[in-house]
Amino acid sequence: MRASHNWTRRAVTGATALALFGLTSTAASAATGIQGSGRADPVPSGFRAQSTTWTSPTHGWVLGTAPCSTGECTTVVTSHDGGGTWSAVAAPPAPLAPPGEAGITEIRFADAHHGWAFGPDFYSTSNGGHSWRKASLPGDGQRVISLATDAGVVYAAVSPCAVGVPPYECEKPNSVWRANVNHGKWHRVPVNLPTKPAEGVVIALHNRTGYILVPGTAGDPDTLFASTNGRRWSTRPSPCDKQGAEALVDIAPMPHKRVALLCVGDAGFSKATKHVFRSTDTAKTTTDAGITPRLGIQSTLAATPSGSTLAVASVSSGSWLYRNTANATWNTVLDEADGGSGWNNLLFTTNQDGFLIHAPAAGWTGEGTLLTTHDAGATWTPVPISS
């Protein structure tokens, strides 16, 4: 699952108490349906990470789980010093969701106040995670597929089919919606997604420039839209080799209309071709950025804010992380013989610093380790999440 892997590069200032997706102001935090104590607490022992989000290089949150009196409880922790120290805030009243079941798997924040926990259920906060409210989905949405936020705007892709309905039985198209973080009214994004059953919708943002992607499957065409203002959208060609059954699976936007694109195809036993492209004109045209080593199939792509470094996280029978520094040569920086525990939320907060979750807590091993880099992804080390 992939929502946006880009951190919010511009914090929203002057946040108001206006409602967003059914949020109330902090002053109304005792109202029915809000979960939280309104304070920061020590991190529970045994915390395991599932998803992370950062609104600046120093301020971030991690969604996960920890042992509690009833077994395992959903937990959210936050750091104000780049991951050096942590404290627990409130968590949405929902479990981490196994595939096809109710609950949440991802967390995103737009600024120090406004955040969302989703996938497939939907919760929101307007006070930095000190309380959470079940949020209403736009249109006829029944579950949230992906969500991304940047520059004071939030996008959500929703499915009209209920939780638990297999993709092949969901014959209605997904839709994408846009709202201003401070004003909160949803507006449907004027793009037509494929009418065939499609589970994955990728939303990637950099400031006002946005991309909406639905990967093609079994040789079907990829669907890619781009916009520089969030209101007028146009299609973009896929650089993938459809004769080789490649699909455009991820996209990493950068400043000045630059963007990187990831195609995956020719899958075999634990291997696939992972071909990366770069563009300087919002994906109207592309140039070759090389092919990663073949180990790994399911993959995501991230870029440093300047675009000088690209990284691909991939998983199949194991988990691998590949890195490229503005040339066509890809190097293996992480090689985990973990049976396919996988990754989540590969992201860079500066040109040197970044985060990545190994073996997310909702996965089959669920070790939930947060990793960090301070050398543009060349090396990664575990982050102790404790008080």
Automatic annotation (TrEMBL):
The keyword Repressor does not apply. The keyword Signal applies. Residues 1-30 form the signal peptide. InterPro entries: WD40/YVTN_repeat-like_dom_sf. Residues 33-52 are annotated as: Disordered. Keywords: Signal. Gene3D superfamilies: YVTN repeat-like/Quinoprotein amine dehydrogenase. This is Photosynthesis system II assembly factor Ycf48/Hcf136-like domain-containing protein.
